[in-house]
Every structure is written in structure tokens, then in C-alpha cells.
Amino acid sequence: MILEMVRVQIWGLKEHLERMIPVLHEFGYLQIDDVREVQDVLLEPYSLNEKIKLQQQEVDLLIANINGLIELFTSLSKKRTEPVFDSSSSEEISDIRSKVSDLISQIQYLNNQKKALQDELISLSKYYSLLRAIAPLMPSSSEKSGNATIRALVHTSQMGNMKLLAQQLKLLTKGKFEMITVKIGESTNAVIGIFPLEMISQVETFMKNEKVAQLILPEEYAYLSTDDALQYIQKKIDLNHQELDEIDSRLHRIANNWLNPLQIWQLICKDRADEFDAYTKVGETDYTFTIFGWVPLENLENLRLVLKSNFGKNATLSVIGVPEELKEKIPVSIRNPKSITPFEDFVKLRAVPKYSDIDPSTLVAIFMPLFFGMMVGDVGYGALMLILTLLFRKKVKKGLLADFFGALRVGSVWTMIFGILYGEYFGTLGEKVGIPPLWISRSEGGNITTLILMALVVGFGHILLGLLIGIWNAIVHRSRNEIFERLGMFVGLIGVIILAGSLTRNLPHGFNILGWIVLAVGLGTMAISLGTTSLFLGPVEFVGVIGNVLSYLRITALGLASVFLAKVANDMGGMIGSVFVGVLIALVIHALNLVIGMLSPTIQSMRLQYVEFFRKFYEGGQAPFKPFRRRVTQEAIQSKN
Amino acid sequence: MEQAIIALAASLAIAVTALATALAQRAIGSAGVGALAEKPELAGTIIILVAIPETMVILGFAVAAIILLGG
Predict the structure, then answer these.
(1) Which residues of chain A from 526 to 565 reach within 8 Å of chain B, CB to CB?
(2) Which of B43, B51, B65 sits opposite A349 (nearest CB)?
């Protein structure tokens, strides 16, 4: 049902505006029009003062920080749930700011620590792998007291020079220099030199002069032997890993503890940002402000009371007329019983209804599951679908998937009802155990004519209903052409039904002439709306309508595909010698049929609503009602608690 | 022989229209997914656009049924 809306104007002294905005926000049933876009009003938009501008910037920054933290914490805790309102739901912006700032400091500190440890780990791993390559090659002389060791990394191309250098060092140390080289990479060689400790300064100076880069280990283990250094580095690596694990678990704890409050704070801050945004929609004069907006008629008195109790005579509310040019801009608010809500969303998926239209949600809620049931029509599949949708009911609460399961739940009931009519229990299993159909069996070839007739009757009925609503809408919109066009189609279709009845001898022969006359009257009525092009366009339009009716044959086509796939499952299962394998094959094919049966008929049924039914009366395209309402309200906090 | 020709005609009525539907849906579907990536609010329109060519195969089914029942 589309709610009746009224256009209102709230006027008051400027000094009360800062209190007015939160009051209207808390009220939650007023959509504020941007004064810059209101065509019938000439008012300057409210200019924000410096204090509000500063607050707005702070809140925007806070939202950006919170968004960053939420993104980080979601990746850490690997789950994103809906916020659960708790004590953090009523915090002030200043408290939120200081807590967010604390959190950022903590995270930055931990991240810095983590980065330092990771950097250290990288260099430790490098030293470790180098020393491990060198360790087995270290001669026993290197461990003798009084001997010193140098370690260097040399590119393969420099190895010739290195040998010459070793000879010079031997001369320098009077033959006491010992050199070992080992290839440790594609083009890297480790060079180890052992010589008397007293020569160390001379050797090091010589190496420096010859520009040979020594492998200089960190100071803490630079003077240890290779084996000791290796042990030391290994311990350090283990310790770093432990510390990294501790930091990670601390980050996880913080993420788990703070994700929910952050999500609530994000909503609170967005609410505040909305309030700043609302200021820009208000009009002002030197001393007064004016707010234009829309409120559902049923909430008008409530708004009046709220304003009176908060502002007394300092603010006035008046209902103002809706000029013709604004009629297409009236926001549309729809309210339906909970059981119809999923179908309401399917309607909105096509387009939000026009304010003056009939809300088709109830009709979709009736026909969509009905057609689904007619297509699938199997007690076994219906029961399984019902169980599945009930299982997913608590897990999927919002979004298109929740709507899909909601529609499927009703569809599964119709599936079971039509299953009883068709006598289908997992395809032909019912027949095999002796359960007869209440109406007809779809698996018998002789019944195809009845099934086609059923689809056509449904098609004619559905299209005629759509045209009737279309005629009503056209009368409401006072659109003469649309009235004649839809009336012509309606009458023409009645003529076709009479003709079909007469030609198939279900009606007496005399109805043949009546059918032609009614069809001619229908086409003639259409011609009035189409004007001079009627001779060509009239029949084309009408053939299109007949095509729409034939489109309902998909109910039969999909139904037959479903029942024959189920039959194949049962027959193939029965043909296999082994009972276990036979049941397994039947189960796999039935599972496939069930999945196809959940998806394809839903889409086809939706298409019959969108393309065949809606086109006869539904335009849609108006903007939805977007009230200025808090995301975090006291009612929401109380209801969640 | 006559029965075989009737069966062949019915199967052709379904097969050719099914192929035509598939070709149309391939083009619409791929373009639709691209559009959805940028504008998720177009979901309803895309579903309609993808489902529209299916009328061809449904009409093929109707023709096949007429051929079989008439035969």
C-alpha cells in the first residue's frame, strides 16, 4: 500500500535551528527537500557558520578513521556482522573521537613493532642462510685462539682478483693467511679468510683499500664464532616469531573487542554527518529559517505535537499544496504486511511505483509463488525447498537473497499443493507407490494439451487483470489515449477468447461471429488511441499482447522439463543393478533438478510479472521516501537489547 | 516415415529457437554483468533483458506442441 504524503513547511527563528535539526532527526518521518531544488520557492540556502563547519570537518575525519579501522578489523577477525547495539550506542561524538584516537595509537604502536620485527627477521634470515652455507667449510684453525676470521661476499666476476688479493695477504701475513671460497648463489661467492689476530687491522685496511665488501654481522654476534653466531641467530629468529605471534593475537583481540563498537560509532557519526547535511537543505532569511519537506499523512499530527512540545510558538508547521510540476516528485512510501515485504522488494527491483499508481506488491505476492508452484509442482521438491528456506531464514536476514528465500518459502507451499494435483512426489515416485494425481499427471504425453490450456488460461487471466488495473490507472491519470488503448486490448482479448472457444467447439458455433465482432470492437477502440497510424500499429500492438499470453506457456514448458528430469532420475536409478549406486545416481539427478527448480522457475515467474503483467499497467520510476531519520535510535537500541 | 519427419520438425522448432535464445542471452548476459558491476541498481532491468529472448524458445515449444499434437 502506498502511503498518502503531505507537503509541509516548517518555519521558525534562526536561533532555534540548531535545536530543530536534531528534533526532526529524532522524529524520523520527515523527508527534507533541498531548498535549492524546490522550484516554487525563492529562498537563500542556509549558510553554515564556522563552528558548524569545523564540527563537520571533524566528523568527516572521524568517519574516515573509523572506516579505516573497520576495514582493518574486519580483515583481522575475518567476519563482518551486523552491529549489535550495546552501551556504545549512546556515546557522544567527543567520547568516540577520544576512543578512536586511543585505538589508532594502539594499532600504530603494534604495527610499528610488528614492522620492526619483520624487518629484523628478514635480515636475520639472510645472515642465517649465509652463515649456514659457510659453517661446514670453516677450518679448525678458525677456532684456535689467536686467530681472526674475515667473511666476505664476492661476485663471481671478481674471484680472479680475489685470488691475487689472497696471495698478497699471504705475503703480508708471512704465509699465515688461509682462504676458503664457496659458491652460495648463482653469481655470489662466500670468501673466508683466517689469519693471526694481531694482523686484523692490517688485513681490514688492506681489504678496505681493495674495496672488498665484508659480510659485517650485527655487533652483538660479530665477534662470535660462526657456529655460535648461527645458534644466536636461530634463537633470535624464534624469539621474533614468538613476539610476532603475540602481536597478532593482541591485534585479533582488539579487532574482536572493538569491531562492534566501531560499527555503531560509524552509524552515530553518519547520523551526525546527516544533520550537517540537513542544514544545507534549509532556506533562510535574515532572522528566520524555513524547511520544506514531506511527511506521511498518518505522521502529520505526531510531527505537530513534537514541534509544539519542543518549540511552542517559536516554530510553526503548515501543510502546503502540491503544484502540478511537483506531483511527479512526491516521494513514495510503501507499507505492506511482513509476508509481502520480499515481494515489495522485487517490485522495487524493477522500479519504485509512482505515487498515483496501485502498489503491485500484493499481486506479485499472490502470482509469483503461484506460478512458481505451477511450474515445479512436486510434493517432494516443495518439502525440501520449504526445509531449506526455513534453515536459511535465520542466517540470511537482509538483501536480495533473503527476499529470494522469502519468496521461495511461499512458492514451496504452492509447489506442494500443485504436486498433490499433479500426483508428483520426487517425480514419478508417487505413481510407482500408487499415489494417484488429484487432477492430471504431467508425465503422461496425452495430458500436454490440458497443460498448455492451463497455461493459456492463466496467461489470459493474468493479462486481463493487468489491463484492468492499467485502465484504472489511466482513469486516475486522466490519460484518454491510455484508457482507449488498454480498453481496446482488453476487449480484443475477450474477443480472442470467445473465438478460440468457438473454434475449438467448446462454445456454440454462433459465438464465432460474436468473437469476431468483439475483436473488431477492441481493435477499433485501440485505433482511437493510436490515431492515424492505427491501421498499421493496432494489429502489431495486439499481436504483441497475444505474444504476451503465449509467453505463459513457459509454465507448461518448465514444468515438463522438471517432471521429465525427475522421471529420468528415477528410471536411471532403477536401471542400475546395485541398489546403492542406483540410489546415488537418482539422488544426484534429483539434487540437480532441485537446484534448477529453485532458480529457473523463480526467474521465469519474476519475468512473467515484470514483462507480461507490469507492462499493462505499471510505470514506476518515482523516488522512494527517504526520511531524515537516525540510524541509531533509542527504539532500535532497546529492541536489540 | 511421416512420424519421423513430424518428430524432426518438432525437434527443429525447439532446437533452432533454443540456439537463437542462447545466442541472444549470451550477448545480453555478458553486457548485463558488465553493467551490473557499475550499477547494481539495474538488477531488475538486467533480469528482464536477459529473460526477454526466452520467449523465442517458448514460442518454439508452442510450435513443436502444435506439430506433435496436430500430427
Answers:
(1) 547, 550-551, 553-554, 556-557
(2) B43
